[in-house]
Amino acid sequence: MNLTLHLTDNCNMDCSYCIREKCPKDMTEEVLYKACDLAFSKGPRAGICFFGGEPLIRKDLIYKALDHCEKKSEETGIRFDCKMTTNGTLLDEEFIERAVRAKMGIGLSFDGKAQDVCRIFAGGNPTSEVVEEKAKLLLKHMPDASALATIAPQAVSYYAESVEYLHDLGFRNLSFVIAYGRKVNWTDDDMVILREELKKTCAYVKELFIRGEKFYIGPIYTKISECIRDKNTAERCHLGLRQMPVTPDGRIYPCTSFIGDEDYLLGDVFNGINKEKVFEISKKESTPETCIGCDLVKRCTNSCGCANRMNTGDENKVSPLQCTYERMLIEECDALGEDLYQINPQRFAEVFK
Ligand code: SF4
Ligand code: SF4
Description:
The chain is of the alpha/beta class. It has 2 domains: 2-284, TIM Barrel (Alpha-Beta Barrel); 286-353, no CATH class. It has helices at 29-39, 59-76, 93-101, 115-118, 128-141, 159-169, 188-210, 220-228, 275-282, 305-312, 320-343, 345-352, and strands spanning 2-6, 45-51, 79-86, 105-109, 146-151, 173-178, 216-218, 244-246, 251-252, 267-268, 272-273. The strands form 2 sheets. An 8-stranded parallel β-sheet has the order 7-6-5-4-3-2-1-8. Strands 9-10-11 form a 3-stranded antiparallel β-sheet. The chain is globular. The two termini are 27 Å apart. The relative contact order is 0.11. The model has no long low-confidence stretch (mean pLDDT 93). It binds iron/sulfur cluster (SF4) (2 copies). One iron/sulfur cluster binds next to helix 11.
């Protein structure tokens, strides 16, 4: 079973687009161990994602969870996988070495050249210099670490430049998403710039492809590969039941946007998961009514109930922003895919199949 442990809701940063509410309570050791045991209770593998707030504020809990899960994996023969999303400011050599031993996948939230526009320390200081140094340290030990960028409207003109900067820093796995939620407001002018930035990014990806570089950037690569594999994006996930969040007090929900909504409470680490509730939620219709009949329905992330809820308050309602963005993204990715195929069909198949 895959669980995302919200070790703390606190954070040493104060990003302008942050959707998390700061809260004085951290996860207790009792909840932590129960959550780890629950991850081992079903299926052939136990997956733990360390999350926050900023999870490295509670490094001590991460060390404890790793020791506990590795021991459990040895005893049961069940495979243990772990990952973490972090703002990186508290990374140090000792932690990274432990993470390497645990084969932890680390996603560094880093907006590249846009970092100081939205991602500042609590108190207002910029974070880019610190995070750049930590990124270098991370890449020295974990060359496969990912950089996760969230582009807000006020930083949209840094999009393409940030892709290049993160690549030059050494990242070969990037994820670029746009910021959603009540704290951001995309205007039509921002969307025009976003389109230009996507075009520049696609041109850069083409350059790397021609150079034969191994590189991945989501969602651009995903859109191309899912199209040629005829994979239905909409089937990927509706309410995140494949990776359930556990709150600091041990309650379990289908996905982050649903935390605190008692109608979606799936159980807790002490009493386990209510199977009927999971069944009831997994049966919910995942295609929003307004998307039925759209040509792009199978290629769009319209079915992400978590994103829909965050944007519109309704898991089955896609925001106009997301619809515009998805159309733009699919159009640009299709043009790029066509180009790359013409350049080298064999390599295209190797990269995207
Ligand atoms: S680092 Fe993450 S949790 Fe912390 S303020 Fe920024 S977005 Fe929020
Ligand atoms: S492009 Fe818009 S209408 Fe079409 S499936 Fe996506 S969100 Fe729905």
